[in-house]
Design a protein that fits this description.
The complex is a heterodimer.
Chain A (H helix, E strand, L loop, with lengths): L7 H4 L3 H9 L5 H15 L6 E4 L1 H16 L11 E5 L26 H8 L3 E6 L36 H8 L5 E6 L5 H7 L2 E4 L19 E6 L2 H11 L25 E6 L8 H14 L3 E7 L6 H16 L1 H6 L8 H6 L8 H22 L4 E5 L12 H4 L9 H7 L4 E8 L5 E7 L5 H14 L11
Chain B lengths: L2 H16 L15 H23 L5 H22 L17
Helix pairs in contact in B: 1-3, 2-3
Classes of the chains: A alpha/beta, B mainly alpha.
Chain lengths: 471, 100
């Protein structure tokens, strides 16, 4: 089969493109894996993107994939495709560190369901990718919040990759993997997708099994793909979605991708004031995106977001559930080993949330879900800038980075509280050559529709094809 | 009120509560019926901090305890904000207990 030496350009191809070449036996899974492994070794640690390069496992899986494909047994579009997993996903015999010093030597004797499903799909695990310690649950306010150091966006390595899926964002953007699996409790896929200029999908809560993934917040955590295109997100989600008896919250909902084409234009609502307070480049890119969307969407401007206490609900839930999930860590005092100063004390307040206050948050949450579902029922998607700024500089705390930007409706917390899906895709660049993103948010279980809209946008634009130059 | 203004408002009041600020007859904008609420918050904050010290005091420096106090104060304000959403007896929490 195929060429032995892989051009760097190939490593930035989409999963679909790579899969087609592998199937046509124009590309060897072994050569492709070796190329990604070499690139991970060369750039992974410089970007703060890698915890463990899984070279031996990857080459074993690559050779197995190669053998099967030569024998005509093709498992699907992910067969022979190298990927990275956020280091909160259990991988048998390989450290799973949760990005945190106290768990640096932790090794599980089983694989997370997502890892197992990707193996069954023929994908090849090349790396455990860096993350903000404990997925950011203790309130970090600085980029340097992992024992691997700060994640850096490959577009300008003086700036943060975004978190908590720092490694998946950076590695995908830098062509170190063909795709990655990230996670989101409240913002941890959407933010690095925006800051690294990749396509990141937060699925509906319950779409993907959480078995074997570190829990920060049992009722908010979601696992999702981070890729170089929306279409790739659909291909990866097809492999990892589905009911799992080992995760009672996983739903027996079929995921049909691609969706049946609509016989009408998409109906998009623009969330009112979502760009107010955004940096000028973010706002300008958002407005240009709306112009591009107008070609195939019917757009309703100024859609008011319900005025509900999203911040207090999401904070109460994350803080209480996080303090419970990490109770042993807090009791032992080992939180003092965490990297970010705020994280060393930040988990303790959650342990003091009264049960009735947590329950109040969960009761209000039900009302938020209903209000948002009523709103979203009128549209295929609501759109907003993914973030109001470009990535933060590494040497400032978050509140000091862009003090004059921000505000507007709490789109990310609201969507997470309600368990709704969202996808962030790149839509341009801002200061310091840093990417900006647009997010499409939808009703629960509407991933096929969101992916169709994002895919159509990417067929009309080429932001997702841009590549960072790495030194 | 935008999310950002909410956060700023919480932040200011939480800092004041955490610092033990008492506003009583100072001519501030607070009315008399705000006083019992403030005292209740202060009492709650103190009780929670006593528990933090008892359970975790060995793991936290004085500076960290101060930060913990501020965050708990902020949490108490958030809890009060959540009480403003009207709930009926039949409004259940958004999870379901099931037997197998």
């Amino acid at each position: 089969m195929a060429q032995d030496r892989i051009d760097d350009g190939v490593l930035f191809a989409t999963v679909r493109e790579l899969g087609e070449r592998i199937r046509a036996r124009q590309l060897s899974p072994v050569a492709l894996t070796e190329a990604y492994l070499d690139r991970l070794e060369k750039y992974g640690r410089k970007l703060g993107a890698v915890v463990t390069v899984t070279r031996d496992l990857a080459l074993t899986e690559a050779r197995a994939a190669d053998k099967e494909i030569r024998a005509g047994k093709f498992r699907g579009p992910l067969h022979g495709i190298p990927y990275g997993a956020k280091d909160l996903l259990a991988t048998r015999g390989i450290p799973t560190t949760w990005g945190a010093e106290p768990y640096r030597k932790q090794v599980f004797d089983y694989d997370a369901t997502v890892i197992r499903k990707l193996r069954e799909a023929g994908a090849i695990l090349v790396a455990k990718l860096a993350m903000v310690e404990l997925a950011g649950g203790f309130g970090y306010n600085q980029a340097d919040a992992s024992f691997t150091g700060p994640g850096r966006t490959p577009w300008n390595t003086r700036f943060w990759s975004g978190g908590s899926s720092t490694g998946p964002g950076a590695a995908t953007a830098a062509g170190l993997v063909a795709f990655a699996i990230g996670s989101e409790t409240s913002g941890s896929i959407i933010t690095p997708a925006a800051y690294c200029g990749v396509s990141g999908l937060r699925p509906t809560y319950g779409r993907v099994s959480r078995h074997g993934a570190m829990a920060l917040s049992w009722t908010l955590d979601k696992l999702g793909p981070m890729c170089r295109s929306a279409e790739d997100c659909g291909l990866v989600l097809s492999a990892i979605a589905g009911r799992d008896p080992q995760d009672a919250s996983s739903a027996p909902r079929p995921f049909v991708f691609p969706a049946q084409p609509l016989q009408r234009r998409f109906r998009i609502g623009v969330i009112k004031d979502s760009a107010q307070g955004a940096q000028p480049a973010v706002r300008k890119n958002f407005e240009l995106s709306l112009q591009a969307l107008e070609k195939f969407c019917t757009i309703t401007a100024d859609v008011s977001f319900p005025d509900l206490p999203y911040g207090p609900v999401v904070s109460t839930v994350i803080n209480a559930e996080g303090a419970s999930a990490f109770r042993e860590l807090l009791n032992s005092g080992r939180a003092s080993q965490l990297r970010a100063a705020n994280d060393r004390w930040g988990g303790y307040p959650g342990a003091m949330i009264l049960a009735v206050d947590y329950l109040q948050a969960m009761r209000v949450r039900a009302k938020i879900k209903k209000a948002l579902d009523d709103l979203y029922a009128r549209f295929d998607a609501l759109v907003a800038p993914s973030r109001s700024t470009v990535a933060y500089p590494l040497d400032e705390t978050f509140e000091k980075a862009y003090p004059n930007s921000g505000g507007g409706p709490a789109v990310i917390p609201a969507g997470n509280i309600a368990g709704q899906p969202a996808i962030s895709i790149p839509n341009g660049f801002g200061p310091h050559n840093l990417p900006t993103g647009i997010q499409f948010t939808g009703r629960v279980w509407s991933e096929p529709r969101l992916l169709a809209i994002a895919h159509a946008y990417q067929q009309a634009t080429d932001w997702h094809r841009r590549r960072p130059k790495l030194a | 009120m935008s999310e950002r203004r909410n956060r700023r408002q919480f932040g200011k009041e939480a800092v004041a509560l955490a610092a033990g600020a008492v506003v009583a007859g100072t001519g501030s904008a607070l009315g008399q019926d705000e006083q019992p609420k403030r005292d209740a918050r202060t009492i709650a904050l103190q009780a929670l901090m006593d528990m933090v010290r008892a359970r975790y005091g060995a793991h936290l420096s004085d500076e960290q305890l101060k930060r913990v106090r501020q965050k708990i104060a902020s949490g108490l304000f958030m809890a009060e904000a959540l009480k403003k959403t009207r709930l009926e007896n039949g409004d259940e929490p958004d999870f379901v207990f099931q037997t197998d």
